[in-house]
Amino acid sequence: MAGELMDNRGRGEAAWTWPSIHPEGRKFGLIAVAVSLVFLLLLDWEIVGWPLLMLSAGVFAFFRDPERVVPQGDSLIVAPADGLVTLISEVLPPVELQHDDVLSGRGLGTEPVTRVSIFMSVFDVHINRAPMGGTIKRLIYIPGKFLNADLDKASEENERQHILIETGNGSPIGFTQIAGLVARRIVPCVKTGDMVAAGQRVGLIRFGSRVDVYLPKGTESKVLLGQKVIAGETVIAETGKQALLEGVTQ
């Protein structure tokens, strides 16, 4: 199915398949399986072995990497992470992404923009994806604390990695991977200068965390506070579009 064109008129073929496991998770899962088999087969400690075996299944599930059908459109911004929209607010972009640079091009500017924050629980897929296509112009890692990623101040105090993409029309879009209370490592799979497509995998954060997206000036969120989004599939905004959307929990 990878690379196949699908549309809203039935073109393409879709069927459920087992998701693949990200390479980062295979080693952890295999180690957990090996340890559980030692307790089950060699030591005959079933009270320890069976829980470890179930934990192994949980490790593989955490690192699952399903395929996604990415909506196509130069103005569309897709969710970079699976999870719950916990914050939508007007904020200044991170200092590291604000200013123009001779080498890395245009920054996000020094005026407030809309930030959409997506919180990933340990049950969500943790593969992060590019919100728009373009060239990776900045990839800035910043050590920090491991506060609850749900807190607003986590954007400025937690371990994080800023990514700035220059889109096809030359405008920039930025997003930030933020480590959380349990997450202890941000793992990128892209580097500065790489060209990425919208929805392409750019990395992962291990064990619960958050991703912030800084929408271009004049662009409002198309998702609601409390909404669940899917990385690479949910359209969270369309550049240049502003409209108040309301939702009701039920």
TrEMBL record:
Q: In which pathway does it act?
A: Phospholipid metabolism; phosphatidylethanolamine biosynthesis; phosphatidylethanolamine from CDP-diacylglycerol: step 2/2
Which domain of life does the UniProt lineage start with? Answer: Bacteria
Q: Which reaction does it catalyse?
A: a 1,2-diacyl-sn-glycero-3-phospho-L-serine + H(+) = a 1,2-diacyl-sn-glycero-3-phosphoethanolamine + CO2
- Return the Pfam families for the record: PS_Dcarbxylase (PF02666)
Q: Which InterPro entries match?
A: PS_Dcarbxylase, PSD-A
Task: Name the Enzyme Commission number(s) assigned to this protein.
Answer: 4.1.1.65
Details of cofactor binding: Binds 1 pyruvoyl group covalently per subunit.
Which GO MF terms does the UniProt record name? phosphatidylserine decarboxylase activity
Transmembrane portions of the chain:
28-45
GO-annotated cellular components: plasma membrane
Q: Which positions does the site annotation Cleavage (non-hydrolytic) cover? A: 208-209
Question: Per the UniProt entry, what is one GO biological process?
Answer: phosphatidylethanolamine biosynthetic process
Q: Write out the catalytic residues in the record.
A: 209
Q: How is it modified after translation?
A: Is synthesized initially as an inactive proenzyme. Formation of the active enzyme involves a self-maturation process in which the active site pyruvoyl group is generated from an internal serine residue via an autocatalytic post-translational modification. Two non-identical subunits are generated from the proenzyme in this reaction, and the pyruvate is formed at the N-terminus of the alpha chain, which is derived from the carboxyl end of the proenzyme.
Primary location recorded for the protein, binned into one broad class = membrane
Protein keywords: Cell membrane, Decarboxylase, Lipid biosynthesis, Lipid metabolism, Lyase, Membrane, Phospholipid biosynthesis, Phospholipid metabolism, Pyruvate, Transmembrane, Transmembrane helix, Zymogen
- Which positions carry Pyruvic acid (Ser)? 209
Reported cofactor(s) = pyruvate
Q: What topology does the record note for this protein and the membrane?
A: Peripheral membrane protein
Q: Which compartments is it annotated to reside in?
A: Cell membrane
Entry similarity comment: Belongs to the phosphatidylserine decarboxylase family. PSD-A subfamily.
Per UniProt, subunit arrangement is: Heterodimer of a large membrane-associated beta subunit and a small pyruvoyl-containing alpha subunit.
Function statement: Catalyzes the formation of phosphatidylethanolamine (PtdEtn) from phosphatidylserine (PtdSer).
Q: What is this protein called?
A: Phosphatidylserine decarboxylase proenzyme
Instruction: List the source organism.
Output: Altericroceibacterium endophyticum
What gene is behind this protein? psd
